[in-house]
Amino acid sequence: MSLANSPEDERPFENDREEARLPVGRALKQARIDAGLTVDDVSNATRVRITIVHAIEADNFAPCGGDVYARGHIRTLAKAVHLDPAPLLAQFDAEHGGRPAPTPAAPLFEAERIRPERRGPNWTAAMVAAIVAVVGFVGFTAFRGGDDGGAGTQVAEGSTPTAAESASTTPKGGKPADPTPGPSDSAIAAAPQDKVTVQVSAADGRSWISAKDHNGRLLFDGLLKQGESKTFQDSDKINLVLGDAGAIQLYVNGKKIEDDFQPGSVERLTYTKGDPQVG
Question: Are 69 and 112 spatial neighbours (Cβ–Cβ below 8 Å)?
Fold first, then answer.
């Protein structure tokens, strides 16, 4: 005679519930899917490598490099997918022989984090910069090569009088010369006939100036402080805009322009090889 099981015998035991619980990796994966996140999303948010995320979700903790590292990754991934890491860590410890002994925290996750790629020096940019510097030096040397007796021609942009020239402007009577900057004798003599040379000097204050060549290429755009000067040269013409024309003295092709500019006035000027016109 056989005995039938009572309804109470059909109810699951607590151990059965424990066995039905999802593995740690599977629980993390399901939580990620429920959160609408991809493996790439989790990897970018946690800085844990994609291969490590895949391995953990497959309950393969060997790529983590040890239980200590595995626990750290479980905690990080659980927070990223909005799970409480404590039950998962307890389950992991129970399945892997208990909680591991503490280890130094310094090297904990450095090996598994995505590190930025280390770039070498940009040799192409350095070479280009070196070539530009050499070309500029050669051009500047060639431009100054037409002086007489070794006296440097001051027709380079932003030139300033030398100490010898400053001394020569002081009269013998001891009275200092007018401090207003003007073109040196060598600059006037060096103004070529087949080009237009314009020197802009901030004599009575500072002024914003803009200078362009005949192609519209910008030669200078900025503030000229009192006592400073700029020299521009082109094969055809120089276009100027003076923000405060009253503070500026102009020398075109070695000759002073006597226009009576008013302080604060804005002037738009164009000078060619034949300027200034005589008479």
Answer: yes
* Structural tokens at position 100: 């591991």
- Pair 201, 229: CB distance under 8 Å: yes
Distance between CA atoms of 257 and 189, rounded to whole angstroms?
17
Which amino acid does the sequence have at 24?
Answer: V
| Rg (alpha carbons) of the chain, rounded to whole number | 41
What are the structure tokens assigned to 212, written together? 């362009």
pLDDT the model gives residue 194: 86
Grouping H, G, I as helix, E, B as strand and the rest as coil, residue 204 is: coil
Please report the pLDDT score of residue 116 as a whole number.
Answer: 52
Q: Please state, in angstroms and rounded to a whole number, the distance separating the CA atoms of residues 175 and 178.
A: 9
Strands 196-202 and 248-252: antiparallel
Distance from C-alpha of 269 to C-alpha of 248, rounded to nearest angstrom: 13
Whole-angstrom distance, CA of residue 53 vs CA of residue 46 = 10
Question: Checking DSSP bridges between strand 218-224 and strand 248-252, what pairing results, if any?
Answer: unpaired
CA pair distance 113, 156, nearest whole angstrom = 56
Q: State the 10-residue block means of pLDDT for the chain, 279 residues long.
A: 49 48 91 94 93 94 91 94 93 79 49 53 79 81 56 42 45 48 50 86 89 93 92 92 87 86 87 73
- The answer to whether 185 and 153 are in contact (CB under 8 A) is no
Listed residue (188, 187, 170, 191) closest to 179, CA to CA: 170
What H or E segment, with its residue span, contains residue 156?
none
